[in-house]
Amino acid sequence: GLEQIGGGLKTKIKKISGQLTTIKAMVEVAIDFPDEEAEILNADDLRRQIEPALKGLEDLISAAEHGKIIKDGISAVIIGRPNVGKSSLLNALLREERAIVTSVPGTTRDTVEEYLDILGLPVHIVDTAGIREARGEVEEIGIQRSMAKLTTADLVIMLLDAGSPPHADDERLFAKAAGKPLIIVINKSDIKRPEIIREHYARFPDTAIVTISAKTGDSLPQLEGLIYKTITGDDYSAESRQTIPNLRHQAAMTKALKAGRSFLRGLNNELAPDLMAIDLQTALDYLGEIVGYTTTEDILDKIFGDFCLGK
């Protein structure tokens, strides 16, 4: 399994393996020297030692769940009133002119769909028809499609015009997006001052707000970082990408965690050391599937190194 595993993940699992090996060494000593068992196996000490290992596994398993998002991608929808710059934003994110950009409101009559890569996160992004009271049947259909896309999206990007005061249509849209991961993007910062509108939406503490210019590309990297963080829960870093386990690793870690928790239960119930050693070995075996196995020799080295026994 070593060849397909990121350096960051390998380091983390080796560290957890090391923590478990130390505990196993102590349990082995207690088995060999039953008279010293009470002294060697201090339950509080062992608990303190195993907790970081279990927490480390829990974190890596949740990283694997994020990894699924990163592999499979997400769907995002750009919503807003006509002419706030939705198509310009889509083009800026795509870094090319694909959606129709004109200054006539109501031009994107339908939904325009694109795939883009945002910091390695595959995003299926939909630019919707501007939401306003429809002027004509074609626009009405576009608006209905926009609303349908909004309900199925993983992420909603609501675009507002920096120069316009908050509008009833915006408030309606904001209400429709309730309960979804939402980023408010205030556009046209190159020509207008966004403070009023920023203050208006700042009263919703869970909503991320960013001010950009789709035209000049100003603050687009901040928006991309925000999209990544809103979806994965993490700030983007190249290193974080290295620590994403694949499905096989995730399964092995889940089994190792189960065995580690079983050891903890045994400890709390004052189980015999030889039975507790089995749980630890099971956990080490599962981690060994990912980073190579810890042998009995490693454990003996650890015992003699830490306890100066048999010298």
UniProtKB/TrEMBL annotation:
Keywords: GTP-binding, Nucleotide-binding. The keyword Repeat does not apply. Pfam families: MMR_HSR1, MnmE_helical. Residues 73-232 form the TrmE-type G domain. GO terms for cellular component: cytosol. CDD domains: trmE (cd04164). PROSITE patterns: G_TRME. GO terms for molecular function: GTP binding. GO terms for biological process: tRNA methylation; tRNA wobble uridine modification. SUPFAM superfamilies: P-loop containing nucleoside triphosphate hydrolases, TrmE connector domain. This is tRNA-5-carboxymethylaminomethyl-2-thiouridine(34) synthesis protein MnmE.
